Amino acid sequence: MHYSLIFTVTIAVLVSYTSSFSIPHPFENLCEFLKYVEKDQHEALESLTQKAAVLGRAAIEILPKNSSFEEYIKRDLDSVNNTQGFDQMIDFLNRFESSYNRYILGNLSLESQPTLRLLYNNWDSESSNIIENSNSNISARFDEMRNKPSENWSIVKQEYSSASNVYMYRRDYDGHPFFGRYLYSDKSKYYCDE
């Protein structure tokens, strides 16, 4: 009885002592990187969404009242400030670009309005710059993370490099949903939320 009490007390002391030291997360570098990418993506998508909303409102001012574009996109423009989810922003951007092309750029009766084309070209150029900056930031951060020493890097290097390359070589924001799914599955796979 005496020995079992000493044993129990010793174990309790050791457990409390060792739990006071933080054990490093085995995939700390990767989780840190995933968190950075998620934040960067969200900021880029917010910026793209806001710029699309500005373009949409400017186009509505130029177009005749109750135009097809206005009717189609007005609901989306009204909700853009409340649309902060990753997937919702992607959906908005895809619908917006499609409807702008369909109802404005593809509308022959609006050819006499070169301002609408100019506004779109400026938006397209700014959007490309935002995506390019986001990609270069993520790529630089990825290289930095890859060069950090980590016992577990070899485990994820091939898998992660493949997904990163797919993401980096996409041509527009349509690539975001794929990488978003990869991000969320990886955060779970590597226990990043724990």
List keywords for this structure.
194 residues, 77% helix, elongated
TL;DR?
By secondary structure, the protein is mostly helical.
Spans of at least 5 consecutive residues with low confidence: 1-23
Estimated radius of gyration: 25 Å
Tally of strands:
0
Helix count equals 7
Q: Indicate the multimeric state.
A: single chain
What would the principal axes of the Cα set say about the shape? elongated
- Distance between the terminal alpha carbons, to the nearest Å? 39 Å
Overall SS class: mainly alpha
Q: Helix proportion of residues, in percent? A: over 70%
Biggest pleated-sheet summary: none
Mean pLDDT: 73
Q: Tally the structural domains.
A: 1
Percent of residues in β-strands: under 5%
Helix and strand sequence: HHHHHHH
Organism: Drosophila persimilis
Protein name: GL26023
Signal peptide: 1-20
Keywords: Signal
Describe the fold and architecture:
The protein has 194 residues and is an all-alpha fold. It has one domain (26-189). Helices cover 77% and strands 0% of the residues. It has 7 helices and no strands. The protein has helices spanning 2-19, 28-62, 68-79, 86-105, 114-147, 153-168, 175-189. Helix 2 (28-62) packs parallel to helix 4 and helix 2 packs antiparallel against helix 5 (114-147). The two termini are 39 Å apart. The model is unreliable at 1-23 (pLDDT under 50).
